[in-house]
Amino acid sequence: xxxxxxxxxxxxxxxxxxxxxxxxxxxxxxxxxxxxxxxxxxxxxxxxxxxxxxxxxxxxxxxxxxxxxxxxxxxxxxxxxxxxxxxxxxxxxxxxxxxxxxxxxxxxxxxxxxxxxxxxxxxxxxxxxxxxxxxxxxxxxxxxxxxxxxxxxxxxxxxxxxxxxxxxxxxxxxxxxxxxxxxxxxxxxxxxxxxxxxxxxxxxxxxxxxxxxxxxxxxxxxxxxxxxxxxxxxxxxxxxxxxxxxxxxxxxxxxxxxxxxxxxxxxxxxxxxxxxxxxxxxxxxxxxxxxxxxxxxxxxxxxxxxxxxxxxxxxxxxxxxxxxxxxxxxxxxxxxxxxxxxxxxxxxxxxxxxxxxxxxxxxxxxxxxxxxxxx
Length: 375
Ligand SMILES: Nc1nc2c(ncn2[C@@H]2O[C@H](COP(=O)(O)OP(=O)(O)OP(=O)(O)O)[C@@H](O)[C@H]2O)c(=O)[nH]1
Ligand SMILES: [Zn+2]
Prior knowledge:
Distance between the termini: 58 Å
Bound molecules: guanosine-5'-triphosphate, zinc ion
Main location: cytoplasm
Number of helices: 13
Number of domains: 4
Cofactor: Zn(2+)
GO biological process, one term: ribosomal small subunit biogenesis
Enzyme class: hydrolase
Oligomer: single chain
Domain EngC GTPase: 161-308
């Protein structure tokens, strides 16, 4: 019988130990579980390192050495799958052949979730035990990366896991292009550390040359920029290629053409996307149930109204400079360690703006966001 046992080595670093452990556990079981683990048994190790051993339901989840042990899975009966969406206690899991299963979650894993939140999130890679009739039991959740989450009542709720990229969609016209809004979307993408791509749609409505200065700024910052038109099909192949085999969140202001782009990339998919949007009209800003839509080319697009508009991530003013790529090299060179880079003298950021090393418009975006101004 094939048994699969995985050990994920937790990296310990002085001072960052607790955070690192939180991240490690978060990747695997979600934040709520992580919080509980951290309240668990602690054993002092060398220096200021603190180590603990966690046992849940009689099963060892983590040993003193910080080895994180995933539950055993009997691979002769269990199958790998992907969670497309979570509906209450049921997760819709798609196996490698595209077959769908309504899965409950094994009790051991549930122990790791606390009160309201499910331990399984949309996008999770799982091992599940098929139980016939399109049903199954999730036995194990693989470690996560690329998380989109939301904080509610002081807890982080994972909306979707294992996202590869965020495509920030803007439109060249109707609605007119709003660079500051692109910056806001990029900032939230930077916060998640998921690769952002800028996609400007409706280029059929403008002179391409008019977009070049803006495209130049983003390209220089290292962002990939695509100029497309859902109407004429311009560069749609490029966008299709970008989505193939990856898990992508499409976000952007309402009306920029996200649904239209998905429709031309994959007819039929758009229809389903429409259904989701219509269903969620009632609670437009509160619906956060993420759903993965498999693409014929492999990969998925992830759609939820909340994620589309990107209103879920709160950013505190002090972290804003870190999310502007071009500001990062300068922030540590200001005279005052708590420099806000707005009104201070001897500010390396302002100096860089003054002599053109930082784009003025981007700097203005930065000051607006850091001041907490509405878009
Ligand atoms: N001229 C032009 N119009 C487009 C293009 N793409 C979409 N549109 C139009 O823009 C409008 C909005 O498109 P949608 O696809 O609904 O926009 P959306 O971003 O999905 O909007 P939400 O669902 O509200 O988030 C529709 O009337 C489309 O026909 C394009 O490339 N060129
Ligand atoms: Zn400064």
